[in-house]
Design goal:
Blueprint: H1 2-15, E1 18-22, E2 29-33, E3 39-44, E4 47-51, E5 54-65, E6 68-78, E7 83-94, E8 97-108, E9 113-122, E10 129-138, E11 141-150, E12 159-169, E13 174-178, E14 181-184, E15 187-191, E16 194-198, E17 206-207, E18 211-215, E19 219-223, E20 226-231, E21 234-243, E22 247-257, E23 263-273, H2 275-281, E24 287-298, E25 310-320, H3 325-328, H4 331-336, E26 339-340, E27 343-353, E28 357-368, E29 379-393, E30 395-410, E31 416-432, E32 437-453, E33 464-482, E34 487-505, E35 520-530, E36 536-547, E37 554-564, E38 569-578, E39 583-594, E40 598-607, E41 623-633, E42 637-646, E43 651-662, E44 666-681, E45 684-699, E46 703-710
Antiparallel strand pairs: 1-2, 2-3, 3-5, 4-5, 5-6, 6-7, 7-8, 8-9, 9-10, 10-11, 11-12, 12-13, 12-14, 13-16, 14-15, 17-20, 18-19, 19-21, 20-21, 21-22, 22-23, 23-24, 24-25, 25-27, 26-27, 27-28, 28-29, 29-30, 30-31, 31-32, 32-33, 33-34, 34-35, 35-36, 36-37, 37-38, 38-39, 39-40, 40-41, 41-42, ...
């Protein structure tokens, strides 16, 4: 900033050891040197006059410092008072950018004081400029009169802030205005009695941009974020919010950087509904609250010199009262949550690792946000694992590993269980046909025991014990070949499980999987095609299971194809075919088109009602869905539209259309949105239709606000 450079100028003069006045150069100049005889201050002009303590430079007068230089038509330097007065088209440059402009500048070096009239300053990074009738600089602060501020063109700005007076703290990069008016093309549209904000990119505590809206059901919506940044290693945002017809609350976001430069992120919030609102919509919860935390850290307790040379912590914690919590806070909370439909998953893992051993402690907690009670959902709290890394056994190509786990399944209502598992595979591998074929044979010794407690009346569950010795056989090949016009890779794999000895006693509910109790066969294949520039053009993957002892011996066939026609067009097709039903159980198709100024997609998703539930991959419930979207960019205009349509139930789940136009300093957007979302009532989740118009106005970088109007 200019203030800092002024200080440097004053210090340079006070430390100078020699002072020269030269008329031998092409232009008359005055130079001042430090103790190392390096020039730290230079005063040049086309014509220079010296009378006692006054030096007058006329014609292209220039004052040069190590970091900046100032040019003017005339400059007067008083060597006794150390005051420099520059007049006539004064321009101060920092680096290669114009930083400050005025008609007259008075600089008192010793007092660190200057007076500028008129005043102009611009930040080359943000584009923010400040213009004033006059300015006084005193001890790091500019006091300015009749101020105009904007980031638009100086000649004809779209918007600007006008104020009677203000001040700018160059150390804090903080601008304060009294009685500012926001003007669009000189027409006042908004008045503030007082406004204070950052004029740079450094983190500072203060108020952030408010959000103002209106909804038919919730009334006037107002949120005012408050930002706290006391230290470089952590900050926090508190967001008090109010919905006049519904209630009020507060949300917050917390960020910490640890000594390994890893971020801990947390989100928390509370919102309380009024009695009338809860009764109108028959809501299950009057209070909506939640907490989220994400943190990943390696080398938490270990050292490379220790036996366990590596450890790690992974936390993805999300606990919320119901699905409505995510609608009342910002989109970031929902995007970062592990939410599959209505199922919210929390994970907390820790591991220790050495060259030979691995120890892990895991916890998983599931919440069904569309259910009035989560008491019957089985939770894994905790799971402990010891794993012996694969190692050689006696001879070449013979290996072994060992794995032991104990899992605690708990819930308030319903049976609970503690399961212990031990597994010892012996692996023999061999390659044939010049390494084109890789074969492995593995006898596997497996044992598990399940102890039940809190058993409901009428449910008879005895302690389950299962011991087996089964065999796993795998054969695979990886082939790569380069043709004249393309390259091709092919992987083929067969995996077969053969039961052997088995001893099974007691009860095992469907929740527990028992490996090796039946014959299973899996075929999988994948191939990739590349062009001559090694760019992927086509990928194809297939997988087929056979359950040789089940009633339905043939499992689902999965076939996935991705085709990249060029850098613009791509196609995805992923199909699951159920042989038992002789029809498709699940399918996804999507076409993407991406160009520099145009993006579009069209897709289809289908899941039949008989499809096997798999919570781990978000597979549950019937779905019939078409999605499409397009976005087109023009020079200063962006048009967009998207939709999601349930063709079986014949309704639009969501759709929106809108536009946004922007220049460097101003952005304006409007979109109309329709969406159907769940709300938890006393009778379970109920669908609610919401339509609203969202108006976005941004006076960059000073003011950004969203105005939401409900149907």
């Amino acid at each position: 900033m200019f203030k800092k450079n002024v200080k440097k100028l004053g210090v340079a003069i006070s430390l100078a050891t020699t002072f020269t006045f030269s008329l031998l150069e092409a232009r008359p100049s005055i130079k001042q040197f430090d103790a190392k005889q390096e020039a730290v201050f230079e005063f040049l002009a086309d014509d220079m006059e010296y009378s006692q303590s006054i030096i007058v430079g006329k014609g292209h007068a220039t004052v040069i410092n190590l970091d900046y230089y100032i040019s003017a038509n005339k400059a007067v330097y008083n060597t006794k008072t150390r005051e420099i007065t520059l007049s006539g088209d004064v321009n101060a440059y920092k680096g290669n950018a114009l930083y400050l402009r005025a008609q007259e500048v008075k600089i008192k070096l010793q007092e660190d004081y200057s007076f500028l009239e008129p005043f102009y300053m611009q930040d080359s990074t943000t584009g923010l400029w400040v213009e004033a009738k006059s300015a006084e600089y005193d001890k790091d602060v500019y006091k300015i009169q009749d101020v105009a501020i904007s980031t638009c063109s100086v000649n004809n700005p779209i918007w600007k802030l006008k104020a009677d007076e203000g001040k700018y703290d160059t150390n804090k990069e903080w601008l304060t205005l009294w009685h500012p008016r926001l003007c669009v093309y000189d027409v006042p549209v908004l008045y503030f009695p007082y406004l204070s904000f950052s004029a740079g990119y450094k983190r500072k505590s203060g108020l952030l941009y408010p959000v103002l809206g209106n909804s038919k059901d919730d009334g006037i919506i107002y949120s005012q974020p408050i930002y706290f940044a006391p230290y470089n290693w952590w900050d926090m945002t508190l967001i008090p919010t109010m919905r006049t017809k519904r209630g009020g609350g507060v949300y917050g976001e917390f960020r910490v950087i640890d000594d390994k430069s890893q971020m801990l992120w947390a989100n928390f919030g509370y919102f309380g509904d009024s009695n009338s609102y809860q009764n109108t919509y028959n809501l299950e919860n009057q209070e909506h609250f939640g907490f989220q935390l994400e943190y990943t850290r390696k080398d938490l307790l270990t050292d490379v010199q220790n036996y366990f040379y590596e450890d790690g912590l992974y936390a993805d914690i999300s606990q919320v009262s119901d699905i409505d919590y995510f609608r009342l806070t910002d989109d970031k909370a929902r995007e970062r949550a592990d939410l599959q439909g209505s199922l919210l998953t929390t994970r907390l893992n820790y591991f220790l690792k050495s060259d030979s051993d691995y120890i892990g402690i895991y916890g998983r907690y599931y919440s069904d946000l569309e259910s009035t009670s989560n008491a019957k959902t089985l939770q894994t709290l905790p799971q402990v694992q010891y794993h012996r890394q694969i190692d050689k056994l006696f001879i070449e190509d013979l290996y072994y590993s060992f794995d032991y786990q104990i899992k605690h399944f708990t819930r308030p209502i319903g049976y609970r269980a503690v399961q212990q598992e031990a597994q010892l595979p012996i692996l023999f591998t061999q390659s044939f046909a010049d390494d084109y074929l890789n074969v492995s044979l593995s006898p596997v010794f497996y044992a598990t025991q399940v102890n039940y407690n809190n058993i409901d009346d009428g449910l008879h569950l005895a302690t389950g014990r299962y011991i087996t010795q089964h065999y796993q056989f795998k054969a695979n090949t990886d082939l790569v070949k380069q043709y004249e016009n393309f390259g091709h890779t092919l992987n083929l794999e067969t995996f077969y499980t053969l039961p052997g000895f088995e001893d099974k006693k007691g009860s095992f509910t469907t929740f527990f999987a028992l490996p090796g109790d039946k014959q299973e066969l899996r075929f999988s294949a994948s191939q990739h095609f590349y062009d001559t520039n090694n760019i992927l053009k086509l990928s194809h993957r297939m997988r087929q299971y056979f359950y040789l002892e089940d009633k339905h011996k043939v499992g689902e066939l999965e076939n996935e194809v991705q085709y990249f026609y060029n850098h613009e067009w791509s196609l995805l097709s992923d199909i699951f075919y159920a042989h038992s039903e002789n029809r498709i159980s699940e399918a996804t198709h999507k076409i993407n088109y991406n160009r520099e100024y145009l993006n579009a997609y069209f897709g289809h998703f289908f899941r039949d009602s008989f499809a096997k539930t798999d919570w781990s991959r978000g597979r549950y419930g019937e779905a019939n869905y078409i999605m499409a979207g397009v976005e087109k960019d023009f020079a200063n205009l962006n048009l967009f539209a998207s939709l999601g349509y349930d063709y079986k139930e014949d309704y639009f789940k969501t759709w929106q259309v809108g536009f946004e136009t922007s220049v460097r300093c101003f952005s304006f957007g409007l979109k109309y949105v329709s969406e159907i979302y769940p709300m938890l009532t006393t009778h379970g989740a109920r669908a609610r239709d919401d339509r609203y118009a969202l108006l976005t106005i941004k006076f960059i970088p000073l003011l950004s606000s969203d105005v939401k109007v409900g149907r």
